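Notes continue from the previous slide.

Worked example: a multi-chain complex. Inputs as given:
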Amino acid sequence: MVGIFIIGIIMLAAAVAVIVVRQPVHSALALVGVTLGLAMIYLILQAEFLAVAQVIVYAGAIMVLFLFVVTLLTAGKEETETKDLLSGQRWASVITGLVVGVGLAVVIATHHPTKLATSLSSSFGGLHPIGQELWGPYFLLLAGVALMLLTGAIGVLVLNRTEGTKAPRSRPLPHGVSVSDGEGESRP
Amino acid sequence: MGYLIPEVLLAGGALLALLAVAMLPNAKNLGSWIVLLAMLAAGVDAASMWGVTAKLIMSDTMAIDKYSILVTEFVLLAGASSLLLAWNADRFGAELPPLMAISVLGMMTLGTAANLMVVFVGIELLSLPLYILAASTRTRAGGEAALKYLLLGAFSSGILLFGMALLYGATSSLTFVVYPAITAANTWLLWSGLGLVLVGIAFKLAIVPFHMWVPDVYEGSPTPVTHLMAFGTKVGAAIILLRLLAFGFYGQDGSWGTLIGYLAVLTMIVGNLLAVPQLNLKRLLGYSGIGHAGFLLVGIATHSVDGANAMMFYLLPYGLAAMAVFGVLRLIEGQGDEVTLSDLRGMAYRRPWLAAVLIVGMLSFAGIPLTGGFVGKFFLLQAALFASQPGLAVGIVVGTLVGLFAYLRPLQMLFQRTEVSAKVQHLRWSVAGAVVLGVAVVGTIGIGVYPAPLVHIVSQSANFYWLTGG
């Protein structure tokens, strides 16, 4: 129990750091802290497979992807803070977020454990039971997720189409003016 | 397994269309034809299942009943009309038909959902293709629309998932149709979970505190995609909200009925009010869609069989009117992506037929007699009064009155005796567009004049007899 609290505090701190630090690389590293904390909670719950998958997929693959993107996009660029368009929006969001978050935390913490209708099965989080669930009752949902991943792949192709292949970047409007979507242009 | 043939047909159509456009890039409209045929086949197959007795399939995760079949038909209509509006337009890209098919598949999944996991997969299947389609013309506005939709959609999905986790903790089941049997579950944990789930769905349905994304996304997206968002997404989100509350939480309507009622009134009035000053027609339709989401909520808030029927009924006239208006916009915009109010000037004299279709659609949105929109609003009003909730009835009336201003302004433009705009001058009819407009007009006026068949069908499908009045 104490372990979960300690990990929780570490995860919360890391999550806050993701938002507040200036450098995107530091944000990505703080996110690694969050995912590792989650993996440790899985370990405490004796869900070894989930813990390992969490580390390999999130801390491994996805973080590396993030770091690559961050390095490619922000190399040699100065980050400047954009001005708030609505004044006070930042504080309003912080206060609302805190109220909702603390409220939910109180609700969950005061929920008596005996009333918690769910108890973990002894095989929770292992490779075998997860496979049985996925390929048994939830097989159609697995197919749905497969379609989702396919959609994501198509999305990458569609949105990264380079000039001259299919849809042109700019096209003439009926009035004969052409609008290009170049940088720094404000839209009418 | 035979109950899921429509879904399988549509998924197969999407995959086949993907392969076809990759293998034969020069065959015009091949992908669209494949997906359209798959949609027609799915519609016919779903209709042939009409006599089915309600049952849970796939280890109690999906429900097949007349409700799910009717939802399937509605969203297939939405999908097919969006597809026809994008017919022959290469600039949307060859991926548009399969992506639309996957999105419609998500909506169909929502119609059958009896389990929170299915709800989540359905919502994501519905949304992911729309994020991509919003940016598919690669305009600056389209990119902005897609990014806004993606970011806000991701947040709402997170909230939805958190709520589902709490519901699972409180009830130890993800199958929400069994919730009423779990009597010990009446705890704060359950209500927090339900609240978060409602927020997630309200975002998709564009209920007022969560409506900010709608106008920008509608404006930036290509018109056929906007039509799919306006018709299909609204159907999907509204029917899952009704199913979740009517099946999972029907005994405890005192706790959520009032909340939904207040949101309904707020949404009806704010949405229609914000539609009034809009100059861009797609923005206007965005705000009008928010207002219509409010009308749909009235049916849920009354918590009665009448209300459920009225909401289900309202979806079809709303969708048909959207088909008419978006079809006209699509014809006017031609190669562009934008139609403003001033583009409509003098259209009634130059293009009388097109103007007539626009008038029918707008009047149906506004709820003028002899159109389907009037009958739909009439049933909602009736349900609100039968449930003795006069506040909702007043809300409907005020919302309709405000909406009337918004919808009559474009119509007034049609009759201005000035030179028509260049867009209207160079407008060209297309067969696919004419089909959509024809179905929309016949349907709208047909439901307005002779609603009895649809009333009969709806009363069989949304027959949640265990709901109590008030």
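Summary box: Residues 97 and 174 of chain A are 47 Å apart (CA to CA). The helical segments of chain A are 2-20, 24-44, 48-74, 89-110, 127-135, 139-159.
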